[in-house]
Write a structure and sequence with these properties.
Order of helices and strands: HHHH
Distance between the termini: 16 Å
CATH topology: Arc Repressor Mutant, subunit A
Oligomer: single chain
CATH class: Mainly Alpha
Structural class: mainly alpha
Shape: globular
Helix content: 55-70%
Number of domains: 1
Largest sheet: none
């Protein structure tokens, strides 16, 4: 369902990282992080970071 990169970014969101921190950690731009998060929100039918992390934990996408 989620790509490997989307899962990685969502895990960093779950750790409380901001988009800029995620971008620096992964060596990508802030815009790329936002694009991945938008896709995560669409795939999980969410509107917020908190909702997406909670929904991803339900089926075990995140630990």
């Amino acid at each position: 369902m989620l790509t490997r990169r989307e899962t990685t970014i969502l895990a960093l969101v779950a750790d409380g990282k901001a988009n800029k921190e995620i971008a620096r950690t992964l060596g990508i731009s802030d815009n790329t992080v936002e694009t991945h998060l938008r896709r995560v929100y669409q795939k999980l039918d969410c509107r917020t970071r908190t909702q997406s992390v909670a929904k991803a934990r339900e089926p075990g996408l995140l630990r």
